UniProtKB/TrEMBL annotation:
Pfam families: ABC_tran. Residues 5-230 form the ABC transporter domain. The gene is ybhF_7. It comes from Fuerstiella marisgermanici. InterPro entries: AAA+_ATPase (IPR003593), ABC_transporter-like_ATP-bd (IPR003439), ABC_transporter-like_CS (IPR017871), ABC_Transporter_VariousFunc (IPR051782), P-loop_NTPase (IPR027417). CDD domains: ABC_DR_subfamily_A. This is Putative ABC transporter ATP-binding protein YbhF. The lineage of its organism: Bacteria, Pseudomonadati, Planctomycetota, Planctomycetia, Planctomycetales.
Amino acid sequence: MQPVVKFKNLSKRFGQTVALNDVTLEIPPGVVCAVLGANGAGKSTAIRILLGLDKPDAGFAEALGMDSKTHALEIRGRVGYVADQPPLYEWMTVAEIGWFAAGFYPTGYKAEYDKLTTKFDLDGKQKIANLSKGMRAKVALSLAMAHRPELLILDEPTSGLDPLVRREFLESMIDVSAEGRSVLLSSHQVSEVERVADIVAILLNGKLVCVERLDDLKRDTTEVAISMPDETTPPPAMPGINLAHVSFGHDHVWMVRDLNEAQLRESCRSASLPEPQIRKPNLEDILLAILREYRRDPLQKTAQVKTDTAVENHG
Ligand SMILES: Nc1ncnc2c1ncn2[C@@H]1O[C@H](COP(=O)(O)OP(=O)(O)OP(=O)(O)O)[C@@H](O)[C@H]1O
């Protein structure tokens, strides 16, 4: 199955700043893929390159099978894109901007736009200039979705929006993927991402350190806490892949991939250590552990999280 998004060895610098460092990623059709990462990790740069709004220094990006360097206009015509602060014609009304945009798309656009704006409780007669931030975001999403794109790209679409509007956005994304179309989403709202994402990609300082189906990442990752008897007793070795380890005095916490729980319990028992506290972390716990570990030691192999870049759609 042809991926809807393909990044191949994508690199981009702005002067001394490395925005993207050899990023390779493939997104199959019919999924919501969330790109996560700290501020400045390279998320918007990757999206801008995909849309042909910026040029990579090396590698290439493809959307719907088209190269972003040579087919930027076609890509922008076929995908739906909502930027963080979408530019809109302030003097138009909600209905007029839909009518204006319909001129660039096949028949049916305006009817679909009207359906979406009605669903989002927007008043067609209201001037764009008088809309709240949330209402503007709903107009931008309606404009981006009205031609029923195979790929919807959302760059921080819900920042600064109230919980109700954020929920409406999320439901729209679920609707899109349920119809076999795809969503590429950049967001800092990790708990919301967790509700909708099929695949998560984590960028750290321009480097892709995790691409995985969210269900697999959560199933295979475990948080372990052990309160050692004192600060001098060494903690046990973790039977699994250690993604992150922090200690506060004699309390230790690990984020472990593929933990062999039975082996850990046995080694604690045989060394007369307290029982380990084991729990399943949520996405935010996993992301924070990876980010903290990276900040502590940027050269370590955080890429111990899976980075199989061609993630299958099991859906
Ligand atoms: N036009 C530009 N000129 C100079 N530096 C830039 C430019 N665009 C991005 N950068 C730098 O590239 C890096 C990646 O920026 P980018 O906007 O892609 O990050 P991001 O992950 O989207 O961040 P955020 O979550 O804060 O939106 C940052 O260090 C940023 O300062």
